[in-house]
Amino acid sequence: METSSNSLRLVVDGTRCDGHGICALILPDLISLDAWGYAAIEDSRVDGRANVARARRAVRACPVDALTLSEPSPGANVRMNGRQPGVKDAS
């Protein structure tokens, strides 16, 4: 997987997170804990070899598999209705 030119995306599944906090210890610059101790990710982009390695480590360390690291999808900014955010209808 090429990570030098493309960033990866780190996502937390809030329905799985039990608030162990291991991910925030491993990757404190990308993952914080909310007021209840659950993982919160402000910016899901993971750039740089060191951050990608630490993000992979955080994903593996999560005891409930609440973290996912993947390549961003090309249509990530497209809404369900197929319109681009911020673009008005021509009709």
Overview of the molecule:
The chain has two helices and five strands. It has 91 residues and is of the alpha+beta class. It has a domain at 8-70: Alpha-Beta Plaits. Strands 4-1-5 form a three-stranded antiparallel beta sheet, with helices on one face. Strands 2-3 form a two-stranded antiparallel sheet. It starts with 7 loop residues before the first strand and ends in a 21-residue tail after the last strand. The relative contact order is 0.25. The model is unreliable at 1-5 and 77-87 (pLDDT under 50).
Query: Which oligomerization state do the chains in this entry correspond to?
Result: single chain
Into which percent range does the helicity of residues fall?
10-25%
Helical segment tally? 2
CATH architecture of the domain at 8-70, by name, is: 2-Layer Sandwich
Spatial arrangement of strands, main beta sheet: 4-1-5
Give the biggest beta sheet. 3 strands, antiparallel
Level-1 CATH class name of the domain at 8-70: Alpha Beta
Order of helices and strands: EHEEEHE
CATH fold call of the domain at 8-70: Alpha-Beta Plaits
Mean pLDDT: 82
Instruction: Sum up the overall morphology in one term.
Output: globular
- Class from helix and strand fractions: alpha+beta
What percent strand?
A: 15-25%
Q: Count of DSSP E strands?
A: 5
Euclidean distance between termini CA atoms: 42 Å
